[in-house]
Amino acid sequence: MTLTVDEAGRTVADPGAYADDARLHEALALLRRESPVHRVERPGYNPFWAVTRHADVMEVERDHQLFLNAPRPMLTTAAFDAINAERARQGSALRTLVHMDDPDHRVVRAIGADWFRPKAMRALEPRVRELARRYVDRMVELGGECDFVQQVAVHFPLYVILSLLGLPESDFDRMLKLTQELFGGADDEMRRGEAPDEQIATLLDFFAYFQRLTEARRVDPTDDLASAIANAEVDGAPLNDLDTASYYVIIATAGHDTTSSTISGGLLALLEHPGELARLRADPSLMPYAVDEMIRWVTPVKEFMRTATEDCELNGTAVRKGDALLLSYPSANRDEAVFDDPFRFDVGRDPNKHLAFGFGVHYCLGAALARIEVRAFFEELIPRLESIEAAGPAESVATTFVGGLKRLPVRYTLRT
């Protein structure tokens, strides 16, 4: 059956489509060809424009005054939109960097910026490489077969980011579960429950945990990112409890879930393209290019939303003040106008103008750390590989926001 443009548009708001690459990319390719700024009306969601071409996503990202993150920074159901709007009116809504616009965004982003600058990343890299070795060693301990996602990939970047925050290792499993519930709210296996109140409860659990952490770090500051956040001041006053907890949430969740998705999705890409794995083994100097290709290929952040502050035009389409736009990063990262043979996984792709980290003032704060982690892991794994193959089907998370594989059974032989 031939897919219509309207059906393709509705696919963008279907969590199940993001667990089915072929279905998703068929829809996105059709939208890029025939309706690159497409009005989507899907039951259960407030209407929005799906923006699918690389150039158009860039145009929206560049103009952060015409297109704001607030009040709808990501795609949620109409029921969640209503809950979030009411919480915003009450002053109790989540306010991460994702939710903020300037001037608040600029000031609050600066609180953690120094921890992700090149100097700090160079200082952190030995620790990252140590942890990479630990988790490749863990693969050896698992006896030559494992679920790579659940037993390796989700733990390595989680350990990195929570160590940076200064959280005790005893809390890591709790953070992992809360993160999976937060980003897996549309997935039957990951979510806490179907009702909006049950999913909001995940955020409240995050807030309660981080409020206690804030109180502890203000009484007894330590040399970690959690203390920097807890004791930060804006205009001479500490961040309020909600903004402090929100800062922790974005660092602790986005700081590891996106990287684990890239590592697991990157390994699957190498398994599905053995010639590229052989090419990378033969020429390790390709690793920096391979890392960015894995990031492009997986695109763990599927979308962000923007709201137009004035009537405007985008690629010949009239957009009205107050209209919401969904920036489709998987689509932009497969745009035929930008990428040579975009559906080919190429570990030497150069240039690689992917938008997986966004663009402009909202460019991902942890992009450098993510690249270091992915590179460190594969630079440890690949030289030790004697053989590796799939041991069962890979499965992906149903989501419209952040996600990747939730299972990747593999069978392998590794040098110790």
From TrEMBL:
It comes from the Bacteria. Keywords: Heme, Iron, Metal-binding, Monooxygenase, Oxidoreductase. The keyword Repeat does not apply. The keyword Iron applies. SUPFAM superfamilies: Cytochrome P450. Belongs to the cytochrome P450 family. This is Cytochrome P450.
